[in-house]
Design goal:
Blueprint lengths: L6 E6 L6 H15 L4 E7 L2 E3 L4 H6 L2 E6 L13 E4 L7 H13 L22 H30 L16 H15 L1 H14 L4 H13 L20 H22 L8 H23 L1 H20 L2 H13 L5 H20 L4 H30 L6 H15 L7 H6 L1 H21 L20 H52 L9 E2 L7 H14 L6 H14 L8 E2 L2 E3 L7 E11 L10 E9 L7 H13 L2 H8 L4 H12 L1
Parallel strand pairs: 1-2, 1-4, 4-5, 6-9, 7-10, 8-10
Antiparallel strand pairs: 2-3, 9-10
Helix pairs in contact: 1-3, 4-5, 4-6, 4-12, 6-7, 6-8, 7-8, 7-9, 8-9, 11-12, 11-13, 11-16, 12-13, 13-14, 13-16, 13-17, 16-17, 18-19
Protein name: PTS system mannose-specific EIIBCA component
GO biological process, one term: phosphoenolpyruvate-dependent sugar phosphotransferase system
Subcellular location: Cell inner membrane
């Protein structure tokens, strides 16, 4: 029998390396804090892990989806649910808010989209987030092709810049094979991007038109050079990853349109729709549109590349500042991904253009700046926790040490927990460090032909020592700023703690003084006493009254207590008694309290329960008709209040008991 969970969740980010699992951990911690059971399914780069079963989904009270890619949310139809971007679940506090919202959300039986957590009242997921999620689904599947193809292509250069060329002096057959394999993988980048954007929108039927759209984006509209006419044997001008994005969305929404068009066909034709109608008509429509927009898209793609080159012409500072800020502003979020995807697109064109070309030099230099900017933020945290160790918690220190490995391997997300705790000024600090590394990489003429890998690809990086130096300078500057901020924060916290301690001490003194200013003084509340019987209790109260200056003669006071008990027991109910004495030996009217957890024997009560709390009234003989009756009346009234009895019984703090009784005697 399947185990039942209070909450089921699914997390996923475009790269599937850090955000996915950080959100999982935050959700699990938040659920544990609330005493809830949870199972989190992760959609990482290795695929789906900890997969949810239909029975587990059915048995859950609510669903949380924190993903920037398609996690097949249609499975959760009819369940109360919230759906947000993965970055919204990185912090434990934020993850807890999502869980709380999911538990009170309304179920969406159609699951057109999930409820947005900001309201958790059935409001639909924003269209902007839907578009972003579809885009990131494509990017997620594309990145592995970029990384594998780019690194293999870069490795081929180890045998020489032209080692893949059989006519070159440095030719190597193995290097040539590496470049061929890498080129094939890189060539699949745009079709895969397009296909999986489409798949996120229109599911499996959208893969076919999505792949076709991506292939057309690569080759463009073929035209015969002689006739100037459209020619299947001609050559076209591709429009790159931008065309792949447009083609992906086009293919996905065309499938949704066709689903509506063919919705009225008989159910027995469903198989025909999937195998024939959808692929045929979607491919035709998408193909024609993509060919039709080939010219404008090529112009837009060229204009974008020219703009980036124009930034470079403005100087390394302008371009490096833009790259550095984009890469570190959201640590693997949409802005970071936009910068990285742009870098890989530039690199793809660079590798296609060939070593030594202007396009190659610009693209690989741009990629070096992007990589440097992504590597720096985690290394800043490592520097900070080592140099300023005492300013960080042990948890932060351990995370900072791990970030050294993450940073060296180009995984920016390790810095996210540090930024979420103090967005200002940690985010600007990270942006400064990344920008410095980017600017210096551009100025030093570093060329990185690999799109990922961090320091693992140093052997193929041109001017590698200068690249490491650029990253080190950005790390140190950012690290020093981060330590300075944490030192300021730590010093402020220390001063606040000292002030709090001093305030607490003053408050304690004032509380003690206040507790001795009321009708019942804390010093006259005797707790934790072991008393043999009623008479011993009254004798103890009499002796302490003399010691406190309330009465002059303990024997006379004791006799007054016994005289009243002879008239009838003062034992009440639930362990309470209100012994009272009227005597000339009492200087001023007072109340004393005696508590015994073991109970006082030989003291008759109305419900036969042993007396555990005696509230004694001591009144001068001259006030017998005034103060005596007033105090007795108020104490008796208080004892009829269940809340008062429970409060007195629950504490052995003299000050607290004195306060409780004084409030009733006021």
């Amino acid at each position: 029998m399947a185990e039942k969970y209070d909450i089921v969740a699914a997390t996923g980010c475009p790269t599937g390396i850090a955000h996915t699992f950080m959100a999982k951990e935050a959700l699990e911690k938040a659920a544990a804090e609330r005493g809830l059971t949870i199972k989190v399914e992760t959609h990482g780069q290795v695929g789906v892990e900890n997969e949810l079963t239909a029975a587990e989904i059915a048995g859950a009270r609510a669903v949380v989806v924190a993903a920037d890619k398609d996690v097949h949310a249609e499975r959760f139809a009819g369940k109360p649910m919230v759906s947000v971007g993965v970055s919204r679940a990185i912090a434990v506090e934020a993850a807890g808010k999502l869980i709380d919202d999911a538990l009170v959300a309304k179920a969406d039986p159609s699951l057109a989209v999930a409820v947005e957590s900001a309201e958790a009242t059935g409001e639909k997921e924003s269209f902007g987030h839907q578009l972003y999620k579809h885009l990131m689904n494509g990017v997620s599947h594309m990145l592995v092709f970029v990384v594998a193809g780019g690194v293999l292509t870069a490795l081929s250069f180890l045998w020489g810049i032209t080692s893949f060329d059989s006519t070159a002096a440095d030719y190597n057959s193995f290097a040539a094979m590496l470049k061929i394999i890498g080129g094939v993988a890189m060539g699949l980048m745009v079709p895969v991007l397009s296909a999986y954007i489409a798949e996120s929108i229109g599911k499996r039927p959208a893969l076919v038109p999505g792949f076709v759209a991506g292939m057309i984006a690569i080759q463009g509209l073929p035209v015969n050079a002689t006739t100037g006419m459209i020619d299947a044997g001609g050559a076209g001008v591709g429009f790159g990853f931008l065309g792949g994005i447009v083609g992906g969305f086009l293919a996905g929404y065309v499938i949704l349109l066709l689903e509506k068009v063919f919705a009225k066909l008989p159910a027995n034709l469903n198989g025909l729709k999937a195998i024939f109608l959808y692929p045929l008509f979607s491919t035709l429509i998408v193909g024609l549109v993509m060919l039709a927009i080939s010219g404008p898209m090529s112009a837009i793609n060229t204009a974008m590349m020219d703009f980036l080159k124009g930034l470079s012409a403005s100087g390394a500072i302008v371009l490096g500042l833009a790259i550095g800020c984009m890469c570190s502003v959201d640590m693997g979020g949409p802005v970071n991904k936009a910068a990285y995807v742009t870098g890989t697109a530039m690199l793809t064109e660079a590798l296609a253009a060939g070593v030594g070309t202007e396009t190659y030099n610009f693209g690989t230099n741009f990629m070096a700046a992007v990589s440097a900017a992504c590597i720096v933020p985690p290394l800043i945290t490592t520097f900070a926790v080592v140099v300023g160790k005492k300013y960080f918690s042990q948890e932060d220190h351990d995370a900072g040490i791990v970030n050294f490995i993450l940073g060296c391997t180009h995984i920016t997300e390790g810095a996210i927990p540090f930024m979420t705790k103090n967005i200002w000024p940690v985010m600007p600090i990270m942006m400064i460090g990344s920008s410095i590394a980017s600017i210096l990489s551009l100025m030093f003429g570093v060329h990185d032909p690999a799109p990922h890998g961090g320091f693992l690809v140093l052997p193929v990086v041109e001017n590698a020592p200068m690249w490491v130096l650029a990253i080190a300078i950005g790390t140190v500057v950012g690290g020093i700023l981060f330590v300075a901020f944490k030192k300021h924060e730590w010093t402020k916290a220390q001063k606040a703690a000292e002030t709090e301690v001093a305030t607490a001490e003053v408050a304690a003194i004032e509380a003690e003084q206040a507790s001795d200013e009321g009708f019942v003084k804390a010093s006259n509340v005797l707790c934790g006493q072991t008393i043999e019987n009623r008479d011993a209790a009254l004798a103890l109260i009499s002796e302490r009254a003399v010691e406190a200056g309330i009465a002059e003669d303990s024997a006379a006071l004791y006799a007054a207590f016994l005289k009243r008990e002879a008239e009838g027991t003062t034992g009440m109910v639930e362990g309470f008694a209100i012994p009272h004495a009227k005597s000339d030996t009492v200087k001023t009217a007072q109340v004393m309290v005696l508590k015994s957890s073991e109970g006082i024997a030989s003291w008759e009560t109305m419900d036969e329960s042993p007396v555990t709390c005696a509230i004694a009234l001591l009144v001068p003989e001259s006030e017998a008709g005034t103060s005596h009756l007033q105090i007795l009346s108020k104490v008796a009234t208080a004892l009829t209040d269940e809340a008062f009895r429970a409060a007195v019984k629950s504490t052995d703090d003299p000050a607290a008991i004195a306060k409780l009784i004084n409030e009733r005697l006021a």
